[in-house]
Amino acid sequence: MIRLFTPEDTESVMDIWLSASIRAHDFIPASYWQEQFEVVRDQYLPMSVTYVFAKEDRVCGFLSILDGSTIGALFVVPGCQREGIGSALLRHVQEIATDLTCCVYVENSAACMFYQKLGFVILSRRETETDHDEYVMRFTVQP
How far is the C-alpha of 91 from the C-alpha of 62, rounded, in Å? Predict the structure, then answer.
């Protein structure tokens, strides 16, 4: 079931964010993600609209939208990946927003392919503070 995030989901969402970030971005030291934890929890999460995918009252994944059109985060519990949770969350948001952007590390080929499979195209490549480039990707509903 997909529903809006509530403050009670914070611990689960942040646990997912940290474990999935470290796993998906193994080319970046885990310490970087650990250092970003409070910023994500205290700044980014409150200013985003976040949807969670709950299965039997357990949060298994989440998707956060910033500024109405930027996917700031899409993460699924590592043990629940490849079960359609990420796709369901993304399709849910695609029904609401007609124009979405996201940034994906170039080295995260699985995420790049995932977004492309769901209609995103690569617009550009840019440097990041981590010294690892990312793609800027965009999804637009075609009239």
Answer: 12
Global pTM reads: 0.92
* Domain covering 2-140, topology: Aminopeptidase (3.40.630)
| Residue type (1 letter), 36 | Q
pLDDT digits (tens, 9 = 90+) for 92-127: 998 888 899 999 999 999 999 999 999 999 999 999
Per residue in 39-95, pLDDT tens?
999 999 999 999 999 998 899 999 999 998 999 999 999 888 888 999 999 999 988
Cβ contacts of 66-73, under 8 Å, gap ≥ 24:
68/97, 69/97, 69/99, 69/100, 69/101, 70/100, 70/101, 70/102, 71/100, 71/101, 71/102, 72/44, 72/48, 73/17, 73/40, 73/44, 73/48
Q: Where are the domains of the chain?
A: 2-140
